[in-house]
Design a protein that fits this description.
Blueprint lengths: L11 H6 L1 H15 L11 E5 L3 H12 L8 E4 L12 E6 L6 H12 L3 E5 L6 H9 L3 E2 L12 H14 L7 H18 L5 H9 L3 E7 L2 H16 L5 E5 L14 H7 E7 L7 H12 L6 E5 L5 H22 L8 H8 L5
Parallel strand pairs: 1-2, 1-3, 3-4, 4-5, 6-7, 6-8, 8-9
Helix pairs in contact: 2-6, 2-7, 3-6, 3-9, 7-12, 8-12, 9-12
């Protein structure tokens, strides 16, 4: 970046770096928004709906609560309700911007079925807020809004955790969330230093296409987040997959084409301290199978003592890498006109 401030018309750098503050602020907002969400019997399943950042938040919560949630958790990325959604289902309608059409449709259908619906996302006056007000639903806003809403993964994820706790489906998360905010504030400051990990990784990735692998659970969700952030911020291709799935299919695909892929692709492996016992061996197998067909292979290890911190640590690194990739090419990470046109149905060839 040659010491100059990167092009950033929407403030994506500031919004991304504010992750620790987002966590703490979202916990306080959700505590207030869901104060009347009483715990009680009768909830036999949870269905969460979201796309983009909201969808990643739903997937993250599914992984984060897998070991302590007392009912099944289903996450969908569209408007179709599965048949099981009924009066015994807690539905989490999540749209970070507050205006995602598919999520709004899913919420409306869930209301018609008599499900217990909780709305998360947007700001006062937005479509989700209006729907919640009209139907008498508990609603928690998500900030920041506007063009930087997609950087609000922490602010979107935390209200889901609080809602599940308030509904009596899992232990309270307040202490863990506040602790994560403190730890990640220190981590953020280190990552933003000149020549820090994100800047160096972006430099070494260069113009290659990153392929990001994470193990099943939170690291797999983080890998998808990395991919999306490179797409959105750097306006560049990226791909993601999860272990152990890749050792059952994708890994076989690297047997040919190495003369092409070693010029164009780099592999990023997301690791953490709580991987399943077989995972280390699977990552070794991935390295062995891809060593000669990738431009380079990088390993990023999360910091933190629990899943919540480790997940957000990985996502923060990935977001900052994508911003550095954008800055290196003089790309403005904020505007995404292609997506605006595609979602409006006006994109033409």
């Amino acid at each position: 970046m040659n010491g100059t401030a990167p092009l950033d018309t929407l403030g994506m750098w500031e919004a991304t770096a504010a992750l620790p503050e987002h966590l703490a602020g979202a916990r306080q907002a959700a505590d207030g928004a869901f104060a009347g969400l009483a715990a009680g019997g009768g909830v036999r399943s949870v269905a969460a709906f979201g796309l983009g950042t909201g969808g990643t938040a739903c997937a993250a919560v599914a992984a984060l609560t897998a070991s302590d949630l007392t009912v099944p958790f289903w996450a969908g990325r569209g408007s179709a309700l599965p048949a099981f959604v009924d009066t015994s289902t807690l539905v989490l309608a999540v749209t970070t911007s507050g205006d995602t059409e598919e999520t709004l449709t899913a919420a409306e259908k869930a209301i018609e079925r008599g499900a217990r619906v909780v709305a998360i996302g947007g700001e006062p006056g937005g479509a989700l807020a209006r729907l919640a007000d009209g139907a008498g639903l508990p609603w928690c806003p998500v900030v920041p809004g506007g063009g930087t809403a997609r950087a609000a993964l922490g602010a979107t994820t935390v209200p889901l955790l609080v809602a599940l706790s308030r509904a009596g489906l899992r232990p309270d998360s307040a202490e863990a969330i506040d602790a994560a905010a403190t730890v990640l504030a220190r981590r953020r400051d280190a990552l933003l230093t000149a020549g820090g990990l994100p800047a160096e990784l972006a430099r070494r990735l260069g113009r290659t296409i990153p392929l990001i692998y994470g193990s099943a659970g939170t690291a797999a969700v983080a890998a998808h987040w990395w991919k999306a952030q490179v797409n959105l911020n750097a306006k560049a291709p990226a791909f993601a997959a999860a272990l152990p799935d890749v050792t059952h299919d994708e890994l076989a695909g690297w047997g040919q084409g190495g003369d092409v892929t070693r010029q164009t692709m780099s592999l990023v492996l997301l690791r953490h301290a709580d991987e399943a016992p077989r995972t280390a061996g699977q990552f070794d197998a991935v390295r062995a199978a891809t060593d000669e067909v990738m431009a380079d292979i990088f390993e990023v290890r999360s910091e933190g003592d629990d899943d919540l911190v480790r997940f957000f640590d990985l996502t923060l690194v990935g977001s900052l890498v994508s911003l550095h990739l954008a800055a290196r090419e003089g790309v403005d990470p904020g505007p995404v006109p292609t997506l605006d046109e595609a979602q409006a149905g006006t994109l033409t060839l």
